[in-house]
Amino acid sequence: MMPLIRPKHFFRVAGHDEGFMPLNAFDHALLQAGIGDTNLVRMSSILPPHATEITPITLPAGALIPVAYAAVESSTPGETIAAAVAVAIPKDHSLPGLIMEHHGVGTAEEIEKTVRLMGQKGFEHRKRELLEIRSISSEHTVIKNGACFAGIVLWDNA
Amino acid sequence: MMPLIRPKHFFRVAGHDEGFMPLNAFDHALLQAGIGDTNLVRMSSILPPHATEITPITLPAGALIPVAYAAVESSTPGETIAAAVAVAIPKDHSLPGLIMEHHGVGTAEEIEKTVRLMGQKGFEHRKRELLEIRSISSEHTVIKNGACFAGIVLWDNA
Amino acid sequence: MMPLIRPKHFFRVAGHDEGFMPLNAFDHALLQAGIGDTNLVRMSSILPPHATEITPITLPAGALIPVAYAAVESSTPGETIAAAVAVAIPKDHSLPGLIMEHHGVGTAEEIEKTVRLMGQKGFEHRKRELLEIRSISSEHTVIKNGACFAGIVLWDNA
Fold this sequence. Notes:
Three copies of one chain form a homotrimer. Chain A is of the alpha+beta class. Chain A contains two helices and nine strands. The mean pLDDT of chain A is 96. Chains in contact: A-B, A-C, B-C. Chains B and C meet through strand 3, strand 7 and helix 2 of B and helix 1 and strand 2 of C.
């Protein structure tokens, strides 16, 4: 049997950090984002109908958590990297929203501006009326190995 | 508790499109394939025993959906890209089948021919008797940012 | 409804092989690791609290299986590649452990040494007392298309 999973809540998180290796930097960025010590299952990238935003909660350690996220790692000292996600929320809450991810070399402001526009364009393509776009980003200037993370966590046991 | 998830049905989908950014093109390709507005959870790549093919259904918006897929994006104007998946189906339906993915620069015909051969080779390696191979593909010639998608959706509530 | 999934057991697997195409090599490496013919759902990378190691079991064919893994493919004849995973296990079993993945050109010994250090560094960063690190790796010298796989499978129906 396949359970039908359509989470009812979401929250935004972002973090950045250095680490021994790029994957350590990613792990530290997750901890800094407040969702370390969980098992992220990456998915593409829809806000279920009627889902509402909650303030970030402490997730159960080691649980499998569906998340749409942007991440970037760099080992180029002095380079500024950023990751951002945006949620386009429909006027009609019985319709799904759209999550977009973007990352790259650049500032959080630049990357977040682009990801918001990506969400807007996705709604225009669907001819779906947009209520608003909510976003979050992180930025990091690399010392040795750096990582940025930004994600939308889906959750329904809140 | 971890639910044991072994879907009983599958269907084939494919699509391609342009978009504002490569991820928008991917999002549009999913919509064109008929599985937009869902949360794809990517998996590697087995057809559960006894699973049968159904005609594509409208999936519940925002639900988490297991899918094996090939995808390719390109921002090189004029370039032709393609994505294809194949399902190798065993003669003995109590055995699992094999899903293969392939993508690249090339025509749908070329990419789909290769992915079918990949499925065949996977069965030869297993010394498993092959009933048939079913496949699907999409092809796109890039204008600005293009994407192709082809996938096998697993489903069991049909 | 979203089931809260926190598996209670884990086991280590690794394999390597050649194949017709790189994805075939990966598929063969999974078979060689004893977890072929399942649907791996990749996740990042935490050992749930109280999870205990079991000897590898035969997984149900076609089931969706959460796994943290390292994989590497190469089509450069003569090149030696390796993949390794490590689990850092806490002294206090009510706390989560940490799974790290690493892969690259090199020997299994080199790659596994690095991934074990990555696990140790992750615990130092968390100021969490380490009981021990357990790891597994595979190594392959490429003939035509080769792949290495090493993974930590989470499981709770044992």
